[in-house]
# Entry
Amino acid sequence: MTVSSSPSHGRAAAAPAGTRRLVRTLYASAFCDEFVLLYPVYALLFSDTGLSVGRQASLFALWSLTAVLLEVPSGAWADAVSRRLLLIVGPLLTAAGFALWVLAPSYGAFALGFVLWGAGGALGSGAREALVYDELERAGAEGRYAHVTGRARAIGIAATMSAMGLAGPVFAWGGYDAVGAASVLACLAAAAVATRFPEHRTPTRGGGERRAASLRAGLADARADRSVRGALLLVPAVTAVWGALDEYTPLLARDTGVAVETVPWLLLVIWAGATAGSLLAGPAERLTGNGFAAVLAGSAFALAAGGLAGTPAALVLVALAFGGFQLATVLADARLQRRIDDTGRATLTSVAGLGTELGNLTTYGVYAAAATAWGHGSAFALSAVPYLVTALVLAGAARTTAAARAARGRQRRRPS
# Structure
C-alpha cells in the first residue's frame, strides 16, 4: 500500500468545520457503544448460572472465533459498500445477543449471544477507523486522527465507567433483567447515532473477486514494505492480551475479597487508568521506538505486580497497566492508518484486527489454564510476559535503526 504522507501538526491544530459532525457523531457513537450495564456483571452472570472458568473461557473463545472468521471478510465488505451501513447493523446484532442472555440464561444462549456480538463487532472493526481517517483526510485534518480517536476511546471508557457506577444500584433494584434491558437500549441508541456519520467516499464495487484481489494486493504490499508490515503486526501485539484480560477483571476484583456489589466500583479504578491512557494519545504520538517500548515494559511490570498482590488497593497498579496498554493501542492504530492508503484501508485494518482476535483466542486458552491452576492474580501476572517480549523487540529494532542511521551519516561525511 502507498504510505500516507506525514500530517502537518500545524494544520491539525484546529478542527475544520467540515469535521465537526464527524467528531460529534464519533464521540456519541463511542459513548453509546460502551454504555452497557452488563459489562461489569456478565462474567458474574455466567458464574451464577453455574458455568466453570473453563466453560466461560470457551464462550470467550467462541466470541473471538466468530470475529476471526468474519473480521477480514467484513473489512473487505466495508471497502465495497457503505461503511456507515455496517456501523448501523453491528449494534443491532449485539442488542439481540444481550437480549438472549437475560431472557434465557444458559450456555447455549450465552454462546449464540456471543456469536451475534462477535458478528456485530466484526462489522464495525475496520469500518469505523477507515471511515474516520478518510473523512479527516478529506478535510485535510488527518493529523488529528490519534487525538480524535484517543478522545473517542476515552469517551467510550467514560461510558463504561458510568455503566459500572450504575450497574450496582440497577442490579440491586432489578437484577440481571434490569441491567440486560438497559444494555439492549444502549445498543439501539448506538445504531441510531451511527446513521449520522458523514460518508463521502464512493464504495469500491465489482463483487467478491475484486475485493479478494484488493486484499491480496494489500497483503503483498505489506510483505514488501517493512514499515507497513511492522505497523500491521504491532496492532495485535499491543492489543490482544489486555483486550482479553478485560473480560476477567470482575473476577480478579472479586478475588480480592470484596462483595459483589463493590466489584463495579473497583472496575471504575481500572478503567480510569485506561481513560487517562486514551487522553494522552495526542501528546504521545511522537514517542520514539524506545519510548514506546518503555511504556509497554512499565505497564507489564505494573500488571504483574497488581495481579500478584491480591488486594483491592493493588488494582491501582492494574489501572496504570491498562492506561499504558490503551495508550499503546491508540498509537499503534494511528501508525497503521498513516502507512496504508484509502482504497483498502478497512480491509488491512481488519487484517490487524484478525491478528488481535487470534491473540485473544490464545490468551483465553492460556488464561483458563493458568487461572484454574494458580488463580486469577497469577494469570494476570503471566499475561505481562508477551508485553515484555514486545518491548524488547521494539527496543532492539530502535537500536538497529539508530545504528543504521549513524552508519549512513558517517558514510556521507567521508571525503570522496
About this structure: Residues 20-410 form a domain with the Growth Hormone; Chain: A; fold (CATH 1.20.1250.20). The chain has one domain: 20-410. Confidence is low (pLDDT under 50) at residues 1-14. Residues 39 and 164 are 8 Å apart (CA to CA).
